[in-house]
Design goal:
By secondary structure, the chain is an all-alpha fold. It has one domain: Farnesyl Diphosphate Synthase, CATH 1.10.600. The protein has a two-stranded antiparallel sheet with strand order 1-2. A hairpin with a 2-residue loop joins strand 1 and strand 2. Helix 9 packs parallel to helix 16. It is globular.
């Protein structure tokens, strides 16, 4: 599925990402460039790309929504993509995941130390890129990014803590997802507009749109982590259950009550690695509790709320007479299409 903004991301953002990478030492650059999809583990160039490009696309669209050109939003797009890959590099080390996007993760290819350092370098580069923008709104955009990073780390810390806890509430799980995933997507949906001096009303509306979109994204991802096709997702079958992640459908099932919920609790609490038959049973039990259906419907509801936020922003007259009024009108369809992509994707 082609996502809106692909052309701008390829033409504008990827060259700027390459330029940012050239600032770091060669050893770390090799690992970081592998993570971003510029080359393979031997350093040979590849055209595979580094992911869906969702966050930089949103940043460019938010700049256009403020009435600027996509090019003006490139530093914001580069910054959010660097932060996203910083989080993936560290997340793969924390979770011990050896495969991402149908190839070895950076730590599996280069080692844990190089992967952690590459993540650190990308985080530092993200701040540099935004700090160097001469626009007066640069500091506000940088604060937006740093706030998202703090929330992302808080969410990741909660996710790790959940693995050691026997019980987690659904509210706690959703709060974790808002930090781990929705925070950066919300920032991506707003930071381009902030950098371009967009009206406060536009920035607030895009922030709400991104927050709802981010939570819908995480719920869709949680479903793929259990029922996604490995050939499509690039992750092993039943990956989240194998790691005993307390994702939203799992927590919903564990707190649903009834025989299936209790049987799942027993499986999740069993010491040692779960056999393949146990993993399949766990997936069946989650579905039996209604948690798979509930998670899908909750994602759909969040999608509809995100779309309603866009519609209200575009049609409410709050931006009438401003450059953002025409700007948002020009990207409204793309923002809608991205929201639908998020919940309708299979990878």
């Amino acid at each position: 599925m082609t996502m809106p903004g692909d052309l701008d991301v390829a033409d504008l953002v990827r060259p700027a990402l390459r330029e940012a990478l050239d600032r770091i030492d060669e050893r770390t650059r090799r690992t970081a460039g592998y993570q971003l999809g510029f080359w393979d583990a031997t350093g040979r160039p590849t055209s595979r790309g580094g992911g869906k490009g969702l966050r930089p696309a949103l940043a460019l669209l938010s700049a256009r929504a403020a009435g600027a050109t996509a090019r003006v939003g490139v530093p914001a797009a580069v910054a959010v993509e660097l932060v996203h890959n910083f989080s993936l590099l560290h997340d793969d080390v924390i979770d011990g995941d050896a495969e991402r996007r149908h190839r070895p993760t950076a730590w599996a290819a280069f080692g844990v130390g190089p992967a952690i350092l590459a993540g650190d370098a990308l985080l530092a580069l993200a701040s540099e890129v935004l700090a160097e923008v001469p626009a007066p709104e640069g500091p506000a955009a940088l604060r937006c990014l740093h706030d998202a990073v703090r929330r992302l780390i808080d969410g990741q810390a909660a996710d790790m803590a959940f693995e050691r806890r026997p019980t987690v509430t659904l509210d706690e799980c959703l709060t974790m997802a808002r930090g781990k995933t929705a925070a950066l997507l919300s920032c991506a949906s707003t930071v381009g507009a902030v950098l371009c001096g967009g009206p406060a009303e536009l920035c607030r509306g895009l922030t709400r749109y991104g927050e709802l979109l981010g939570l819908a994204f995480q719920l869709a991802d949680d479903l793929l982590g259990i029922w996604g096709e490995p050939a499509v997702t690039g992750k092993p079958v039943l990956a989240d259950l194998r790691a005993r992640k307390k994702s939203v459908p799992v927590v919903r099932a564990l707190t649903a009550g009834g025989p299936a919920s209790e049987r799942l609790r027993e499986l999740y609490g069993r010491p040692g690695e779960l056999a393949d038959a146990d993993l399949l049973l766990a997936a069946e039990l989650i579905e039996e509790t209604g948690a798979r259906d509930w998670t899908g419907k909750r994602a759909d509801r969040l999608l509809n709320q995100a779309l309603a936020e866009l519609d209200e922003l575009a049609g409410g007259g709050r931006l009438a007479g401003t450059a953002a009024d025409a700007g948002l009108g020009g990207v409204h369809a793309d923002l809608v299409a991205i929201a639908q992509f998020v919940t309708g994707r299979d990878h």
